[in-house]
Write a structure and sequence with these properties.
This protein is of the alpha/beta class. It has one domain: 3-Layer(aba) Sandwich (Rossmann fold), CATH 3.40.50. 40% of the residues lie in helices and 14% in strands. The chain is built from 8 helices and 8 strands, in the order αββαβαβββααβαβαα. A 6-stranded parallel sheet has the order 2-1-3-4-8-7, with helices on both faces. A two-stranded antiparallel sheet has the order 5-6. β5 and β6 form a beta hairpin.
Length: 224
């Protein structure tokens, strides 16, 4: 959804240089998104984007996950960008785990207390841990927005704002949404327990509504 929003916003503002990073989001460098012109190292996207920024007419976009952010992006990326008055846009995928190396827990992983206290076990819990946001504020980031990853319209509008804002300085967008692999590992035992107790469980099934689909492949062109 985030990369769909990124494709849509470039229809309005034109093509932008995208510095990609190591992680599951790096697959967006391939079709149908083609959203990535460079991958330098884990958490190095913002730093590598700074290298090409002087040659670009518009603002550059750096993408990294929260694992890469804690590994390298905070110091070599954000700290350097603030020190050098960078006008770049940074998009952080806050999924709560370092998915690039096996979904290990990190500083911004939802804690056990939040999981236990959650009435809705199906809900994403990434918003319960604000470590990334508070760290960025403490470091001096003045322009920051948080948008849920599946709110394509809101993400498109936020990206548009970041690239057209009169604010001169680093602009950070936190794309917030729990890693779906880890979410499934979390909720499957809970659902199995409900079934063992004879309780009803709703299972979502996806398909094509032939009354709506006209076969023009618009969905494939946008999001694969």
């Amino acid at each position: 959804p985030v990369f769909s929003a990124l494709k849509l916003v470039q229809q309005d503002i034109g093509k932008v240089h995208i510095a990609a990073d190591i992680g599951c989001h790096a697959f967006a460098t391939f079709e149908p998104f083609s959203s990535g012109h460079s991958i330098l190292g884990y958490g190095m996207s913002l730093a590598s984007g700074a290298g090409v920024a002087p040659m670009m007419q518009g603002r550059t976009l750096a993408i990294m996950g929260d694992g890469g952010f804690w590994h390298n992006g905070l110091i070599t990326g954000v700290q350097s960008a603030l020190f050098n008055n960078s006008d770049a846009v940074l998009l952080i995928f806050k999924n709560g785990y370092t998915s690039a190396t096996g979904t290990q827990e990190i500083i911004s992983t939802p804690d056990d207390d939040a999981r236990a206290a959650s009435a809705d076990k199906l809900a994403s819990l990434t918003d319960t841990n604000q470590t990334i946001e508070t760290t960025l504020k403490g470091l001096g980031v003045q322009w920051m927005r948080t948008v849920h990853t599946y709110r394509v319209k809101d993400m498109r509008a936020t990206l548009h704002e970041a690239f057209t804002s009169p604010f001169n300085g680093l602009k950070v967008i936190v794309a917030e949404g729990e890693c779906q692999l880890e979410r499934q590992r979390r909720i499957k035992p809970w659902l199995a327990g409900l079934l063992r107790r004879g309780e009803r469980v709703m299972r979502v099934k996806y398909g094509v509504d032939e009354d709506v689909c006209n076969g023009d492949h618009a969905c494939i062109r946008l999001s694969g």
